[in-house]
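Hi D.,

Good news: the full-assembly prediction came through. Inputs first.
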Amino acid sequence: MLMLMSNLRDLEIRHLTALDAVASEGTFARAADKLGYTQSAISQQIASLEKVVDAKVFDRPGGPRPVTLTPFGEQLLVASRDMLKRVDCMAEDLNRFRTGTVGRLTIGTFQSVSATLLPLVLGRMRDTHPDVEIRVFENDLDDQLEVAMTRGELDMSFVVGEMAGRFESRHLFDDPFVLVARPDQFAPGPVSLVDISREPMIGQHHNSCQIMNETGLRAHGLDPKYVFRTNDNVATAAMVRAGMGVAVMPLLCVEPDDPRISLHPLDPPIPDRSIYIAWRPGRTLSPVAERFLELALEISAEFVDRTVPVPALA
Amino acid sequence: MLMLMSNLRDLEIRHLTALDAVASEGTFARAADKLGYTQSAISQQIASLEKVVDAKVFDRPGGPRPVTLTPFGEQLLVASRDMLKRVDCMAEDLNRFRTGTVGRLTIGTFQSVSATLLPLVLGRMRDTHPDVEIRVFENDLDDQLEVAMTRGELDMSFVVGEMAGRFESRHLFDDPFVLVARPDQFAPGPVSLVDISREPMIGQHHNSCQIMNETGLRAHGLDPKYVFRTNDNVATAAMVRAGMGVAVMPLLCVEPDDPRISLHPLDPPIPDRSIYIAWRPGRTLSPVAERFLELALEISAEFVDRTVPVPALA
DNA sequence: CATAAGCATCAGCATAGACGATCATCAGTA
DNA sequence: TACTGATGATCGTCTATGCTGATGCTTATG
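Then the structure:
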């Protein structure tokens, strides 16, 4: 009984196809024609099938009469046709997956990307791949994204910085730090870091962005005074408008068209925040992920063109 | 797209088994061990699989690190495991069919067998093969049974006579014709055909049994007078009891223990009615049919032992 | 830097499987 | 009765497939 089960593992799709063809066509020769074999080959295939299942499948009446299925053969035939249908069905499913028509994708992201680039990419994905299920995990403590990726919980993630070695990544765009101030506070154009460090400042809590930021200022020997910290970009802008201080923020995090604040390049500039998209090294991406990557690159390009020439920065 | 589907027809169970094993074991070598192949063989099998599906299935990180499935590979794996499960399931189903545990059987029969032998066989079948679905087609116009068999509507059928050539058959038992009369009508023991033909007779309508019967009598130059015809055996017996006449009937058609009638052998006897079970020639029987045949033979033997020594015939 | 664990590849060999030709069977037909 | 034609089985041949065993390449680890 167990032996018979493992015997069936020796079965090949080819056998089932032959069985189906012979049953449909009524004779070995016509089945052979249909499948592009010779009669001899079909005869051998059926013989081999009968050996695998250890039972006669066709009654051969001899003479010019066509073969007929034995009762066992009939059972086998219905099972075989079912199997063949499933194989085709599986082929279709795999094809839909291969072409990216269907699939699942889990993307890691953080606030400023979630608010700017990501919606554009997701929108474009939804247009062209409506049946793909995309899940987004936002986490602003950015080593969390790396951990999740390493655990295989994320297919890809937006990250800040190059992830040297530990991940494979593609550069998307650079996000410059700008000074956010009240419109009348400084003359349009660059503001020196020295002038900035004299103002009370609004910062973020300890995250990678804030670290870059403070590190950049301290690299010039300056010691900024933070009077308030929030990770909420809208709150930060509101604080600035209320005159509580100025803020150094990534350009992406600022509402660009708000007339109640003005944006200034830093003089000298501190290093841009580089935005990458990353994934586990050496892993082939799913077709959907490939598509997502393409779109992210494409839209990032458009995106940079659109956001960089902000009036205040010209 | 269509090309890919037909490509998948080249897939073999072996490939799926290998995929499953490698995915479970994590390395090609362990999978090879598990399946009794060499590492080289598994490597080639997976390569062949990747060629058939036209996609990379595993990421090979190189070095001593184990391989991991690509997203496509994961898809393929779940589909494959499903397929393997279905193959095993199919093997089980076929096995149940092969052993006669399950199956369907359609049997042709006619009145006297339906009333006597058949219930015993069906009862025994139900005891040992409770999950077999048996359907019975009774038809007393017996060429109808042959027609139905030829059309494949019946797996086997009880028949009268040997069916020379047109069917394959096994002899079950012989059913002698007996005279049915009132208890006081004749002395116990054989009654001569001449005496019988002087009595008014109750016969059947034109069917094979009646034909044998009349032919047997006429073969001795006698010309029976039928005063009433019915195919209902109970009605026939009632007519005899009512004194309307005598009847010549197959022993099987008579209620054996009815004290209100008496049974007499014929002198000389007319040829017994031979009961066979028949099926289409050259067709292998289903396991269930084989079993039914066995039982019918077995029970026929017991059956003859029990019915032949009827008191009146001793 | 050496080692070990991983997979790929190559050569060699056995065999499964396809082909082409031929044989055996048997219904239908002359 | 013999012939014909359709059918599947079988046999010899050859190719392609698939497995083994040995070797080579890659990379983490000590």
